[in-house]
Amino acid sequence: MTIDDIINQRHPLPPASMERLKSCLDEVECPRGTLLIEAGRVERNVYFLLQGIARAYVLANGREVTFWIGREGDALFSMNGYVADKPGYEWLELMEDSRLCVLKRDALRRLFATDVHIANWGRRYAESELLATEQRLLPLLHATATQRYRDLLERDPELLRRLPLGSIASYLGVTQASLSRIRAEMGGKRGKQHEETGCTETDDPARQDRPSGTRQSGQLPSQ
Fold it and tell me: Please, which residues bridge with residue 46 across strands?
């Protein structure tokens, strides 16, 4: 996915504004396991994911709870750092070797103040993120675990190939044991789904969630 695609998917920019925004971006490559954002640290950068997949998680009673998953086309940032200039509460981990574009918050704010098209783009981006958050949270209030898993199979079966089951389970709000039971009960339908999509869930122990602190620090390559 190109940065032009990512920018224009939420709200198209005229060419001059597009070039002005792109001039403030730096492209970087980071290995799987990199922590772009760490709890307790003020993170002011915004990252656009060109290639790869990421998850955001918090620690609850010593366990990692995945509450957000991002993939190609998504923006990665800490709300506390970006909006309030305060330390974040979350960790954001790259789950694959990834390519990203980095945009410094202060540069983006200058663009908002000087280019009305970019300011409108930022507003539309924020609106779409709020809508996506609502669509993510509402099923947690009323849908059963089986319904949430079925919805994920239908909406984005590729996630089951690209993420460890532990992350998928906490993202769905269930334990890994419960998810395994749901998968067993849906075995026939799941097998048919994978034949159609070519996706295979990963049970690779090397990709299961690890205790916090075993990942690489989120230091980006020199720019």
Answer: 103
